[in-house]
Amino acid sequence: IQMFGDVVLGVEHYNFEDILADYKDDRGLVLDTDLGSVDWQTIVTVYLEKVEDLIGKPFPQDPYDQLWAAIAAVFASWTNQRAKVYRKLHYIPEEWGTAVNVQSMVFGNMGDTSATGVCFTRNPSTGENVFYGEFLVNAQGEDVVAGIRTPQTLTIAEKERNQSSLPAMEEVMPSIYNEICNIRKQLETHYKDMQDIEFTVQQGKLWMLQTRSGKRTAAAALKIAVDMTNAGLISKEEAICRVDPLALDQLLHPTLDPNASRHVLGKGLPASPGAASGKVCFSSLEAEAIASKGGKAILVRIETSPEDIGGMHAAQGILTTRGGMTSHAAVVARGMGRPCV
Question: Cα(229)–Cα(193) distance, rounded to whole angstroms?
Fold first, then answer.
């Protein structure tokens, strides 16, 4: 209801998040997994009432109505404002159009033996040849990608680096973790590039959902290209073509002096490296307005969504309350060379 409501019916997801957060707060609960089936039935009833209240008609119940509405929503997304901004930033022709895949679903929210996650075959911030990723037990993929939950790390090493108290996948699902590690090697050897992978575990069985070349910082692109050349995966000529010349200025971006005295106000996950200062903005429109007048803005959001693409591009840096190192904010910020916490 939450995802269909947001993507297809235009009911922004904060409406659902507010209902869920209030319900948990009223009962002193922290995690979604603390909720029982009766709790979810109550929340779903309120969700459906909210949808009907905002769109003026009941949530569609016929599966074919839902499917065709979802297909139409994907096609329509090609011409929305955020897609136009993204195409302009990445020099993608409008006439290419988009496609819709219809496929059977696997569920990462069928109990404690189910999970969902996103991983990169190398660290997309630094280019280090270490497995880098996050997962959530008993959740769906959108929860990780949209950054509406703060996930757990895949590896024990990453858990220790982030000083997280939550167990890593390597600890709670060791056999699944080992299977993903083997697939990591296969995919990177086949595609000869760092991969961004999404997966779901349904009741103890691993399903690979997609893989694509991962977005990375300029520093990471340089290191990955050099390392892959040294490993004999790609030629020197191919390595040079892998580094975007327009992104090389990222290597000259500001960083904090490690020896400077500092007054730390807060700490978070290092989603994208760099240093920035500017006026705090709580909306993308505000960040764009400040940047258009030559000012500097820091975009501060609970989590970012594709609608924030303009504001993220205009901002000097990005700060979110929720989400992890593989969320929308983190991936887009790395691709743009914006520091993000």
Answer: 11
DSSP state at residue 153: E
The pLDDT, as a whole number, for residue 147 is 67
DSSP 210: E
How is residue 178 written in tokens? 């080992």
CB 134, CB 324: distance < 8 Å: yes
Please tell me the distance from the alpha carbon of residue 224 to that of residue 318, in angstroms, as a whole number: 25
If we measure between CA atoms, which residue out of 196, 200, 240 comes closest to residue 221? 240
Distance of CA 281 to the CA centre of its chain: 21
Q: Are 136 and 116 in contact (CB under 8 A)?
A: yes
Measured CA angle at 51 (ends 45, 53), to 5 deg: 100
Q: Which of helix, strand or coil describes residue 197? A: strand
The closest of 88, 93, 162 to 123, measured between CA atoms, is 162
Task: Give the span between the Cα atoms of 210 and 196, in whole angstroms.
Answer: 8
Dig out the tokens for 182 from the structure.
Answer: 């083997």
Alpha-carbon distance of 209 to 142, in angstroms, equals 12
Give the domains, in start order, of the chain with CATH numbers.
2-77 (1.20.80), 115-213 (3.30.470.20), 265-336 (3.50.30.10)
Evaluate whether 330 touches 308 at the Cβ level (below 8 Å). no
3-state percent breakdown (helix, strand, coil) of the chain, nearest 5:
45, 15, 40
What pLDDT does 46 receive?
97
Q: Which residue has the tokens 């757990």?
A: 152
For the stretch 76-98, pLDDT in tens is 999 988 889 888 888 899 999 99
